[in-house]
């Protein structure tokens, strides 16, 4: 059963990452190029159809995973408890980001999360299939993806922007900078989990 779960979530991570990089790639690059207009704008522009579809699919995936894993724990499979917390945190970030008006930040964080989970899934699959070289390659790819995507891209385009490029919001709309940074940092902090 564990192998089937890993393959199922691997397929989701691959599909979601492929969709985010192909259907949303240009849109995501535009957010990163000008964070003041659509990335961290206090009043967010309307969602594109591909962005809305991605958001709703992520919401459904996180809800299904949370409920499925919670059911497993309720039936006595306690080793699934960390995954219940993990998927519930994903669901929380998706909902919280939308409620705060920073859906694009939440989408970016969750997309980075999915991309970096692919090599981690590779480790589990390689372990189940007893592929030593597969585990080594997946571990190296996992370390590299975490270092680059969560360590550099996330730090530069989320934390860095929150810290150094959001003054326009709290000056223009009388939003307290500390609360704004706290809300966004909570969303962004999920990426470490």
Describe this structure in words.
The chain is mainly alpha-helical. Helices cover 82% and strands 0% of the residues. It is built from nine helices and no strands. Helix 1 packs across helix 6, helix 5 runs antiparallel to helix 6 and helix 6 packs antiparallel against helix 7. The mean pLDDT is 83.
SSE blueprint and pairings:
Elements: H1 2-22, H2 25-33, H3 35-39, H4 49-74, H5 81-100, H6 103-128, H7 132-164, H8 167-172, H9 177-189
Helix pairs in contact: 1-6, 4-5, 5-6, 5-9, 6-7, 7-9
Concise structural overview:
With 193 residues, the protein is mainly alpha-helical.
What descriptive keywords fit this protein?
193 residues, 0% strand
Tally of alpha and pi helices: 9
Structural class, judged by helices and strands?
A: mainly alpha
| Strand/helix succession | HHHHHHHHH
Uncertain stretches of 5 or more adjacent residues: none
Percentage of residues in strands: under 5%
Q: Compute the average pLDDT.
A: 83
- Gross geometry: globular
Quaternary organisation of the protein chains: single chain
Could you describe the largest sheet, including whether it forms a barrel? none
Question: How much helix, percentage-wise, in residues?
Answer: over 70%
